[in-house]
Amino acid sequence: MRFASQSLAALVLISAALLGGCQHGENPGGSNAFVVTPSQRQVLSALGFVEAAEGWELNLGTGLLFDFDSDQLSGAQLQRLRQIAQGLAGVGIDGLRVEGHSDNVGNEEYNLRLSERRAEAVGRALAAAGMAPARLRVRGFGALKPIADNASEAGRTQNRRVTLIAPSA
Fold first, then answer.
1. Which of 15, 35, 90, 143 could form a disulfide with 104 if both were Cys (CB 3.0 to 4.6 A apart)?
2. What span is annotated as the signal peptide, if there is one (predicted)?
């Protein structure tokens, strides 16, 4: 009986130590937050991610905008996505939320599908660069989350974008 109690105690301690090293999980404040190591923070910042309410966010609109009515990625955009995937993988970040957006030109249903195709294109590029497809949560929002005024061409251009958010959960 004493051996069983000691074994159980050892198992609990080992489990606690292993779980303490997890990058995802409850933080001391009790919220289910994404906890990053100093090296992850450095890489996220270097790649252009900024800390936001839902995790670390990279608005690819600053360097990865889509042409009107397009979900096609250029060679330079694919190279940028490879750089992002490899940088994140190098510090143990293996999942992202990939959120596609559109401007408000056209009907709502079409824009929703277009934003999904944009997010899927980015997701495929990240997967091709080595990220696990199962850890990429891809979603389109259509014109629901603009970052600029859709009244001007410049604003509509900024809204045709994809945003990456770490963690993927």
1. 143
2. none
At residue 140, φ and ψ (nearest 5 deg) are -110, 145
How would you classify the pairing of strands 136-140 and 50-52?
Answer: unpaired
pTM above 0.90, yes or no: no
Q: Which amino acid appears at position 82 of this protein? A: R
Q: How far apart, in whole angstroms, are the C-alpha atoms of residue 53 and residue 133?
A: 24
User: Residue 143 contacts by C-beta under 8 Å, 6 or more apart in sequence?
Assistant: 101, 102, 103, 104, 108, 111, 115, 150, 159
Nearest of 131, 127, 45, 55 to residue 92 by alpha carbon = 131
Q: How many CB atoms lie within 10 A of CB 83?
A: 12
pLDDT digits (tens, 9 = 90+) for 93-145: 999 999 999 999 999 999 999 999 999 999 999 999 999 999 999 999 999 99
